[in-house]
Amino acid sequence: MNVMHALLCSLLVVSTACGSARSTHVKQTPAMTEEPKPTRTPIVPAIVLHGPRDSKAIALTFDADLTPVMLHNLETGRVSSYADVRVIDELRAARAPATIFVVGLWARRYPHLLATLASDPLFEIENHSWSHPGFVVPCFGLQPVVDRRSEVIRAQQEITAVDGRAPRFFRFPGGCASQGDISLVASLGLVPVGWDVVSGDAYMHEPDAVVNNVLRSAKGGSIVVMHLTGPARTPATADAVPRIIDGLRSRGFRLVKLADLMNGAGGGI
I need a surface site. Which of 22, 29, 145, 205 has the fewest CB within 10 A? Predict the structure, then answer.
């Protein structure tokens, strides 16, 4: 059983059986001349929304978004940056592990920052598509995807070139995807991952609201989604992060990287 098969079987709530073959017993009739052959129930991939609920571990995840429109804003000087290093500083100061889902365009724009993150054992870097389109539209105003396969593969290649390690997980922009999209990602060797706790930090100016959204909804095994795009889009995130970390830890939760949450590993900080 490969790693992705094991993850899907252990974490996804699906209606099919996983792991081993099961025999189909068919009543013999005169017209049948062969014994029925064992069949294997197909695994239907789904988006992972959380880890084991009996765990006290929680994964903080951050999306590093960059669309062609956002890239144009950078090139024309309308926006100075879509990389919020303040969030990284807060995570490091608190020694809080985190998973960062990186768009390929973001990786290309900020290769030195990405290399620094990839070299830090606190962080893991995962795939968030090449240009952050909507795989299903409408999806929060995102432009419709043109080439689904290319969106996954180009980002995978760009991130791997900087990180030196190929991402294992994929997050759909906006969380929008069809079953065909999910199957495509799985066929490319990636586990599609969503979230069960929405921080609501996009365009939010009040840190209190972001903190309350997370602390109110978090439970064992939760995957929290936030953003790393900075004041232009997520102005309250950096101020909210240390309070979220303190609040979760004070309730007995451990912060872990996504891979550790998915593997049910102990530890955490």
Answer: 29
